[in-house]
Amino acid sequence: MKPILKKIVPAILLTSSIAIAAIVITKEEVNRKIAGIVAPFNGGNTVMQLFFTELNLDDQKTIDMGISGILTKDGPDNNLILNLQNAAYHYGDGSAPWFTGDLFLKLNLVKTFGQNTLNLYANELEKIANEMAAEYGKKYGDAITFDIAMDDVKKDVNDNVIMARMHLNARIDFSKLPASLDPKEVEFTSIRTQLSAAQTGLAGKILVGLNPLYKGFHSGESGLKNYLEKLLNDDPEIHQELISTVDMLNSIGDYLVNHKAEEQPNEPPPSTPEN
After folding, report:
1. Contact at 8 Å (CB) between 106 and 98?
2. Where are the domains of the chain?
3. What is the pTM of this model?
């Protein structure tokens, strides 16, 4: 697995170069280990699950992977459902590996952040995305092109944003890479994302075409297979890293359902846009 996937699924894709004894890796055994780590966080107002739906490895690397997860939190005035769906990686024959995933957050955003904050970020979202893309794309020079735009914005009679939807796409033209940038250093060939926000939650979808020339695909590189071997061998460092990641996610969930925005007391409740 490649670093770009580690960023997308940090709880699973961690790297290390420590050599350990070979071990037979099965989806069932990996899920059992993860369930044991997640178990202490379940109970009370929390339900948390993270598990592989597909896991296919050869003697060197991961060929196919699927992950699902859910986090639910009940707060005094707000409830959260965070759902990771259809997260999958496929190496295929190595000519065009790819990653995809859907993430959904159900939460009363008005209670947590306030309507004024939602209005501000919805109106500035395209500008913020373009500025971030321009900064990120500097090292690629003219080789990278972006397509960023708001697809839809709905407001109520008081000009409050009810829903906003945008897309952010990027593509690399390897014939235009700067001479100083080796193609083996480029992780992806294309990225397609769809993002939407409403008063009642967020949704995101991503599809990444991975660069088959990327150095991370070379034999000897550490990745998901190496990480899972350590996990099944009870490597203390990997165990603690996963606990820390799960604990951070749990803490963020607690903050979101317990935080109340300091705004006008007469703010209207979330409404559903008319079709």
Report:
1. no
2. 3-258
3. 0.82
